[in-house]
Design brief:
Layout (H helix, E strand, L loop, with lengths): L5 H20 L12 H12 L7 H6 L2 E3 L7 E12 L5 E11 L3 E3 L3 H10 L2 E2 L1 H16 L3 E10 H4 L10 E6 L6 H12 L3
Parallel strand pairs: 2-5
Antiparallel strand pairs: 1-4, 2-3, 3-6, 6-7
Helix pairs in contact: 1-2, 4-5
Length: 196
């Protein structure tokens, strides 16, 4: 079990105080049985949901960087589930990330791609930035011949409030290198659509 640092404990206590005040400002009684421990639970949940600020995604990716000289084809990790918080309303957005890269001497352990997705997602985010950060991290750390990232997400800030469109899906993408060629992008898009 991971040890909680004094700083994390102090932050949690401070967050609890603020969440208690927020609940009271909303008109609730924080001494009511169902709400007594809510400030503490919300504080701990928010620390977990934003733990990506305390992790270095490039270091995680580099920790499993292997020399592989011959493989020059696409490496694809698709359907990576993610959950994040929209920085505008602090409501969840969630969906799937699809990543491809074409090695240039180096490959990485396949589990590291979902790990870096989680690290960037566990911050206050917008989908567009999330897409760019994943791409940039892979490009910077592995220096591949190309990277492409596609993110498909549902946003609770559009479904629970505002326009209240329940079936809307937002798709973002970004790419470098060989993926600037339409044919390579098309191959990737076809491969992530197969068996869905």
């Amino acid at each position: 079990m991971k040890q909680i640092t004094d700083e994390q404990l102090s932050t949690c206590t401070e967050l609890q105080t603020h969440y208690k005040k927020i609940i009271e400002l909303l008109g609730e009684d924080t001494d009511r049985e169902g709400l007594i421990k809510t400030p503490e639970r919300v504080a701990k949940a928010m620390q977990y949901l934003t733990k990506g600020y305390n992790e270095d995604p490039c270091a995680v990716l580099a920790s499993a960087k292997f020399l592989e000289e011959d493989y020059k084809q696409m490496v694809i990790v698709k359907d990576i589930d993610f959950f994040s918080l929209c920085e505008h309303h602090m409501l969840p957005f969630f969906g799937k990330v699809h990543v491809a890269y074409i090695p240039n001497k180096y490959i990485t352990g396949l589990s590291k791609i979902p790990r870096i997705v989680d690290i960037f997602a566990r911050r206050l985010q917008i989908q567009e930035r999330l897409t760019l950060q994943i791409k940039d991290c892979i490009q910077k750390t592995l220096n591949p011949l190309g990277v492409m990232v596609v993110v498909e997400a549902q946003h609770m800030c559009m479904q629970m409030r505002g326009v209240e469109k329940q079936n809307s899906l937002t798709t973002t993408s970004d790419f470098t290198g060989f993926f600037q060629q339409a044919k390579t992008r098309e191959e990737f898009m076809n491969l992530i659509k197969n068996n869905r």
